[in-house]
Write a sequence for this structure.
């Protein structure tokens, strides 16, 4: 009997918990969460609430239940060194050690690593620990400037010229702000193209890619409004995206492989976990926007429900370094994920409001994110509440299933109705056709 510890409490972790529970190995799941996710709790033998920086509590919970390995969902525990802490008591993890999690937690680490090992896919950029040289690069890149804080920002710290600021001077002031709170600021050339996520399971030497997914960060339809943690995402039945070529995916895979190899050369340690590349396909080919050191949220909800290969088997191969002996198979199905979020999200969300999901069709998958289960029902916090996933043989049908489900939620919620629709996907296709010509 395999005993698995899951750390995390979001919709991504609900999808991971489901993938673990579906394993033919009949594992027993123990979950450590900072807030109670009712979906994860139902799938778990035992749960414990606690902070992700309380490493002693996490170790004690893992040891008390004699778990065989841990799966780390979000970035915060990785940044806190939970993998290192669990290893101290002989428990291996699907997730990188703190030093290697800098792939996500330090944007400068990844950029400088790629520069050093001459890995393709970088835009023109500079990494600054002071304001010296900042003006010169801003002047050179104007009007195509992106400013990124070096560190975790919950997906909301990156600012882009034209969207978040207009002038070079405003960009400079934001760099000043960033350096007051972060050790470095990264300034990059703004790339034009279409973004996609390629999530890869990694054992330090071998990679297993999931189907590519496109996420939607903006709060409102037509990519309007503030950035969010992600309003939804889609993947296609042919395991491409309508605007991508097979070569685009191969190029993204090669970049991830080279980065994984470079991490090993640089640190002497093997990266074990997930390498999730946020890529953009441009007229000049595939470029890297950033890496995350874990599965995406919402992108995990697109790939895990169509994963045919036993997820626990993949986890064990990551830990054992035998991913080359595992074939990752995914159903040839399209998926569309849409989040129901509190009214006012992300800038001024309502909080502690009740939602009713009793009329949601069982045809859609439902993953709880930031909801609290009380005696009289579900209540939302200020963050994304519930994700709904439609799965079908084509995008149009998958979108209808997801849309029907999210529209059935009763309460003060809204969602992005355009995710996965024919019109929005066609816009992406036309955009790339124009750029490639």
């Amino acid at each position: 009997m395999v005993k698995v510890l899951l750390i995390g409490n979001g919709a991504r972790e609900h999808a991971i918990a489901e993938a673990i529970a579906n394993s033919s190995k009949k594992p027993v799941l123990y979950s450590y969460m900072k807030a109670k996710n009712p979906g994860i709790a139902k799938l778990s033998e035992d749960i414990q609430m606690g902070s992700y920086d309380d490493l002693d509590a996490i170790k004690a919970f893992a040891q008390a239940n004699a778990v065989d390995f841990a799966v780390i969902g979000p970035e915060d525990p990785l940044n806190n060194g939970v993998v290192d802490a669990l290893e101290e008591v002989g428990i291996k993890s699907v997730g990188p050690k703190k030093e290697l999690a800098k792939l996500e937690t330090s944007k400068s680490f990844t950029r400088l690593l790629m520069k050093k090992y001459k890995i393709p896919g970088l835009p023109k950029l500079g990494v600054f620990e002071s304001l010296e040289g900042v003006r010169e690069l801003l002047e050179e890149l104007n009007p195509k400037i992106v400013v990124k804080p070096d560190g975790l920002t919950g997906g909301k710290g990156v600012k882009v010229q034209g969207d978040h600021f207009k002038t070079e001077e405003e960009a400079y002031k934001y760099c000043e702000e960033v350096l007051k709170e972060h050790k470095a600021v990264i300034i990059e050339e703004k790339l034009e193209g279409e973004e996609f996520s390629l999530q890869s399971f990694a054992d330090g030497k071998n990679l297993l890619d999931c189907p590519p997914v496109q996420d939607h960060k903006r709060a409102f339809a037509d990519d309007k409004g503030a950035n969010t943690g992600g309003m939804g995402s889609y993947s296609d039945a042919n395991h491409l995206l309508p605007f991508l070529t097979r070569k685009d995916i191969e190029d993204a895979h090669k970049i991830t492989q080279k980065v994984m190899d470079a991490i090993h050369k640089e640190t002497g340690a093997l990266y074990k976990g997930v390498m999730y590349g946020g890529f953009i396909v441009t007229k000049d080919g595939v470029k890297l926007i950033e890496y995350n050191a874990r599965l995406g949220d919402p992108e995990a909800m697109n790939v895990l429900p169509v994963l045919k290969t036993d997820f626990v088997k993949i986890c064990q191969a990551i830990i054992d370094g035998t991913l080359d002996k595992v074939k990752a198979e995914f159903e040839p199905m399209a998926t569309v994920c849409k989040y129901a979020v509190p009214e006012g999200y992300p800038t001024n969300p309502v909080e502690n409001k009740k939602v009713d999901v009793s009329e949601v069709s069982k045809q859609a998958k439902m993953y709880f994110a930031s909801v609290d289960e009380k005696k009289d029902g579900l209540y939302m916090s200020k963050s994304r509440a519930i994700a709904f996933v439609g799965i079908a043989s084509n995008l149009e049908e998958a979108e209808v299933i997801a849309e029907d489900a999210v529209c059935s939620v009763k309460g003060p919620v809204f969602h992005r109705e355009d995710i996965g629709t024919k019109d929005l996907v066609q816009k992406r296709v036309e955009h790339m056709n124009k750029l490639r010509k």
User: Anything to note?
Assistant: The domain at 124-189 is CATH 3.30.1490.20 (Dna Ligase; domain 1). The first strand starts at residue 3 and ends at 7. Residues 32 and 58 are 7 Å apart (CA to CA). The longest helix spans residues 246-267.
